[in-house]
Every structure is written in C-alpha cells, then in structure tokens.
Amino acid sequence: MHELSMAEAIVETVLDVAEKNDAQEIVEVTIEVGELTMLNPEQVKFLLGVLAEDTLLEGAEIIIEEVPVEIKCRSCEFTGLANTDGSDHYLAIVLCPKCDERNVEILKGRECNVKTIKIEKSDENA
Amino acid sequence: MKMHKIAEVEVQHDIMVANRKLARKNQKMLDNNQVYAVDVVGAIGSGKTTLIEALIDSMDYNIGVIAGDVISKYDAGRFENHEVPVVGLNTGKECHLDAHLVEHAFHDLPLGDIDLLFIENVGNLICPVDFELGSHMRMVVISVTEGDDTVEKHPLIFKDADLVVINKVDLADAVGADSDKMVSDVKQLNPDVQVIKTSLKTEKGFDEVKKAIEIFINENS
Ligand SMILES: Nc1nc2c(ncn2[C@@H]2O[C@H](COP(=O)(O)OP(=O)(O)OP(=O)(O)O)[C@@H](O)[C@H]2O)c(=O)[nH]1
Ligand SMILES: [Mg+2]
Ligand SMILES: [Zn+2]
Ligand SMILES: [Zn+2]
Ligand SMILES: [Zn+2]
Ligand SMILES: [Zn+2]
Q1: With contact defined as beta carbons under 8 Å apart, do B122 and B152 qualify?
Q2: pTM exceeding 0.80
C-alpha cells in the first residue's frame, strides 16, 4: 500500500506551513482521509510519527478524520452515503442503495487533506 | 519572560489534489511536445507489456515508453529490445506511479521525438485508481486468468477507464472463466466504454485495440 509516500507528502506540507508561520513547535495536525484512498489511518499515524523525528512535528498529536464515501446515482438521482459492507470488495460502494444500479458518480471519499495544524509560537506582544 | 501562544492554522492542502495539479502540468508538457500519452494499468501479469510491445511493432508512430516496476527493470529491458526510447521507473515499495515520478521520467525522454507515449503502470487494480499521471487516456488490461469476478472485486478502476482489454481469452476455457460476464460487468460500471476481448497469443482482438487507440489519438488532435 502507499501509506509511506502519502505520509511523506503530508509531512512536507505540514512542515512547510509551520515554517511559513514561524512555528516553534507543531502541537496538533488534523487530516481528512477518504475511505477510498486505501490508506490505513493507524499506519499513516505510525509513519507520521517516524517521519516526524527531529522535526517541528515531533510529538504532535495526529488527528485523522475518516471521510465516508458519498455517491450520486446517474440512474435515479440518489445522492448520499454509499453502502460500505466492510468487506474488502468495493462492489457495494458503486451500487446505488436506492435502485441497485452500478452507474454512480463518486462525490466524496477520495481526499487526503491536511486540514489544520496547531502550532506554538512566541508571542511578540506578550 | 518569553510568552508562547498556540495558534491554529488553516492548511486545506489535499495531497490528492496536489497530484492532480501535477498531472495537469504533465499533460501540458506533453501537449507542448505534441505527445499523446496512454496510461496502461491492470492486474499483475495480465499482458500489459506484451500488448505495448505488439503495439510498438505494428503502429506507425514514434513511440516511447515509461515502464513502472516495483523492483526490477525487467519490463524496461523488454521494451528496449524494440528500439524505442524507454525510461524505467523503479517505484520501490510503491504500488502505483504518481504524477511526480512521471514528471521525473519526462526529463530522461526525448519528448520532441515522440508522438505516442505508453506509460506502463505498476500491476495493481486498486492503488493507481486516483493517481492521475497526465496521460490523455487510460487503458485497463486484465485477463481471464485472474478470474471472471475481477471486475466486480475492483470496480473503481473500471469506472474511469477509457478503454478496457480483457486478455488471454485463449485460456478462458482452461481456467473456467466467462469472459462475456467480465465484459458486461465493465459495461454496468461504465456504460460507454469500449471493451475488447483479446488473446495476444493468437492476436485475436489486437487490431481492434490498435484501432481504438488510433481513434482516441485522432479525436485529440
Ligand atoms: N496464453 C496467453 N498468454 C499471454 C497472453 N498475453 C500475455 N501472455 C503471457 O502472460 C505473461 C505475462 O505477460 P506480461 O506482458 O509480462 O504481463 P504484464 O501485465 O506486463 O505483467 P507485470 O508487468 O509483471 O504486471 C507472459 O508470459 C506473456 O507471454 C495471452 O493472450 N494468452
Ligand atoms: Mg509488465
Ligand atoms: Zn497502495
Ligand atoms: Zn440509483
Ligand atoms: Zn505514489
Ligand atoms: Zn522530484
């Protein structure tokens, strides 16, 4: 699976933003991970921890918000959450829960979005 | 005494979107060099390399190849035997190519001398799905030997495919696979896509694949 390259890209993004904001430390990172990214949140967290060593990110709390799959059916116009039957077969996801057709458009569930970071910085006005 | 404060910073940087942006840049680079690119994805061992080799030998284009492989440069070596420019991309543990890797390969290709570029992705029906590379079309190659439930098990890769090849139909009886079921499974997911049954052993269906790609190229220019 591709957790490592994704984790590397996340770290790069986070460090870049932190440096631009004069962070002395990163306290928390919130990431949205879509169900269709095939990323295992626990593994992403673990790898982020490893990659964070000796950087501003070391010790930060990593919050992963999983984003469920949302679809729009091209046959009956149903829009909403897809069925996920928990199996590793993804057929359920592309089946419209209302009319059972397979011709659906995927609206959500593909993201790997670094949403926010909490940083610690020295307060000039203090 | 120095005071510290905690600040929340809105980042909103989606890694997938970043890859798509890079892919768009790749496509511009291809367009500037008048190169048409085909991303070839499919199951391990389904016949991707064999198909591209046959296309190299029978098409009237200046062809180049990017060969993605997890560890070896084996496929790249096969393409080199056909005297076309080839760049092998070792993805290491990665299970798919991404736009950044492909951009690196561009630097090692004589893009100005190429008008048709095949990018053989890593054999994998799951991970490459959402990683656009900047190609103009995506061809999915599977074979009957993976079993006739392959499409149902990996529906997402077929949804956005521009052309689907179901290969090794010469072996369908031997492995007890119903290739017509595979065709109709694809059609349910992607009603407009052309699905071609081939045997690269007997050359059945090969001309159809060639023609289908030529039509895509002509529609683009
Ligand atoms: N019987 C039969 N064998 C085929 C056919 N097409 C390819 N093969 C054989 O299948 C094997 C794998 O073919 P490749 O072209 O290397 O497959 P690939 O998809 O590039 O494989 P990877 O890059 O390793 O994922 C080779 O031994 C081919 O000779 C076919 O239509 N029928
Ligand atoms: Mg190959
Ligand atoms: Zn993967
Ligand atoms: Zn429906
Ligand atoms: Zn990658
Ligand atoms: Zn680079």
Answers
A1: no
A2: yes
Q: What does the alpha-carbon distance between residue B191 and residue B184 come to, in Å, rounded to a whole number?
A: 9
Q: What does chain B come to in residues? A: 221
Residues in B closer than 8 angstroms to A90, CB to CB, are 153-156
CATH number of B15-26+35-220: 3.40.50.300
CATH code for the domain of A43: 3.30.2320.80
Token representation of residue A90: 């993804």
Alpha-carbon distance of B133 to B38, in angstroms, equals 10
Atom 32 (ligand 1): residue with closest C-alpha? B168
Is A55 inside any structural domain? yes
Least CB-CB distance to A1: which of B15, B18, B127? B127
Q: Per the domain annotation, does A89 fall within a domain?
A: yes
Looking at CA atoms only, how far is residue A68 from chain B in angstroms?
A: 15
Task: With CA atoms as reference, report the closest residue to B37 among B192, B213, B215.
Answer: B213
Would you say the ipTM is above 0.90? no
Interacting residues of A56 by C-beta distance below 8 A, sequence separation 6+: A15, A18, A19, A23, A24, A25, A26, A119
Domain range for A34: 3-120
The mean pLDDT of B28-55, rounded to a whole number, is: 97
